[in-house]
Amino acid sequence: MTRRYLIPLAVATVLTAGVVSPAAAASGAEWRADLSTVNADDNGVTSHRGTVRLDRAAPTPASARAAVRTGFLQLEPRTLDAPVNAVAASVKSHVPAGAEVAVDVRGALGDDQWTEWVEARPEAPAVLPTEVTTVQVRLALTAEQASPEVSRLDLRAFTTTRAAEDVTAQAAGRSYRIFATREGLVGGTTANGHVIVSRDHFVALPSRRGLSAKGTGTYSVRVCAANGRCEWAPVWDVGPWNTKDDYWNPSSTREMWKDLPQGKPQAQAAYQDGYNGGRDQFGRVVANPAGIDLADGTFWDGLQLTDNAWVTVTYSWTGSGPAGFVRTAGDPLNVRSGATSTAAQVGLAANYAQVRVECQVTGQSVTGTQGTSNIWYRIATGKYIARAYVSGVTGATAC
Questions:
Q1: What are the angstrom distances between the C-alpha of 51 and each of 146, 192, 261?
Q2: What is the pTM of this model?
Q3: Which helix (H) or strand (E) holds 238?
Q4: Residue ranges of the alpha helices (H) in the chain?
Q5: Which of 161, 187, 216, 390 is deepest in the core (most CB within 10 A)?
Q6: What residues pair up with 335 in beta bridges, in sequence order?
Q7: Which residues fall within 8 angstroms of residue 202, CB to CB, at 6 or more apart?
């Protein structure tokens, strides 16, 4: 069966965020995506004569523990002549039973920061939270058995009006108290293609909207335990339990379970309240309220947990202000209680993780991957990291 998904360029009057108004601009940039090239940013897909399908070895996201193969084709960013905030997609595809093809869009915010991925659906374009001049598109393919195939993807970027979201966010990003479980699964493969190693440092969230490509930390979280320790880690997997539950978003943009309170994972509602009959999106009985999975190193070394626990999670890409990326030789960076390597270690910042910088202080001179510096960044109250291991920070002010 061949399906051609047409995402309309304008629909009903805007009432809530993400709904397009009739005032959508008639003009816009149009282009056809190059589906012939698969590179290091892609995972679990192959391309033959411009037709994209899942690789036979495409991973099943380890954290979700669901037998659904997943692959991503991340297209090159496209810079436009004028600001836009919406992208419509027309897809020519063959989608067998149990398979799915999705088109995700994000916008560049500058300094290697991006909006969250937003899906362009058959009934509506992807509407970004702000106007941007550079957009990036990603194909997401999933299948229980036979792979879907995509042979053509046409795109149109334009500007539309949208209602302002009623969201109060701290500079660091939205934060919620969430139940965390240890992912483990050493030797397994995450949704972005990373092979899990012993005492690894990353997290899994139950939505691909905040999924970073392998070896990047565009979408990272700060996880803090009741013992006062925190770890900053990239989001490299999808799960636990669900794969379409971006619970940190308001109901106007949340992909599923829109009637739940913002910040409450569906698994928590199912486990505690019997929501959805106590089952997840796959129909499985939910055995714990987890809204985040922690890799072993994050669990044991970063947070020094001994059992699954409630933690406070901050979603860094929902914040604002100066941010940078941890760059080490592989091991996580020590987070100290002061601006010196002799200060108490109070957490870890994983390689590739994005960190929001509150301010900077002068401290011990340190030599690292980014040179030698006596500047230390405060990334939370009483928590500092050496600038010598952080790239991309601009605009940080003195504490």
A1: 15, 21, 41
A2: 0.91
A3: strand 230-238
A4: 266-273, 296-297
A5: 390
A6: 347
A7: 190, 194, 233, 234, 235, 236, 237, 295, 298, 350
Q: What is the DSSP letter of 298?
A: I
284: Cα separation from own chain's centroid? 24
Q: 247, 222 in Cβ contact below 8 A?
A: no
pLDDT, tens only, 253-306:
999 999 999 999 999 999 999 999 999 999 999 999 999 999 999 999 999 999
Query: Which residues does 293 contact at the CB level (< 8 Å), separation at least 6?
Result: 63, 180, 181, 182, 183, 203, 204, 237, 239, 240
Cβ–Cβ under 8 Å, residues 88 and 11 = no
Residue 121: φ, ψ to 5° = -100, 165
The 10s digit of each residue's pLDDT in 38-71 is: 998 899 999 999 999 999 989 999 999 998 999 9
State both tokens at 238: 């999808």
Kindly tell me the sign of the dihedral angle through the C-alpha atoms of 197, 351, 112, 238: positive
Question: Residue 270: what are its φ and ψ, rounded to 5°?
Answer: -65, -45
Q: Of 113, 32, 143, which is closest to residue 316 (Cα–Cα)? A: 113
Give pLDDT, residue 28: 67
Cα atoms found within 13 Å of the Cα of residue 129, Cβ hemisphere only: 17
SS (H, E, C) 101-113: EEEEEEEEEECCE
Low-confidence ranges of the chain (pLDDT < 50): 1-27, 163-164, 166-169
Provide the 3-class DSSP secondary structure of residue 94: strand
DSSP state of 299: I
Residue 112 pLDDT: 86
Backbone φ and ψ for 82, nearest 5 degrees, come out as -140, 155
| Confidence (pLDDT) at 17 | 30
Q: What percentage of the chain's residues is helix, strand, coil (to nearest 5)?
A: 5, 45, 50
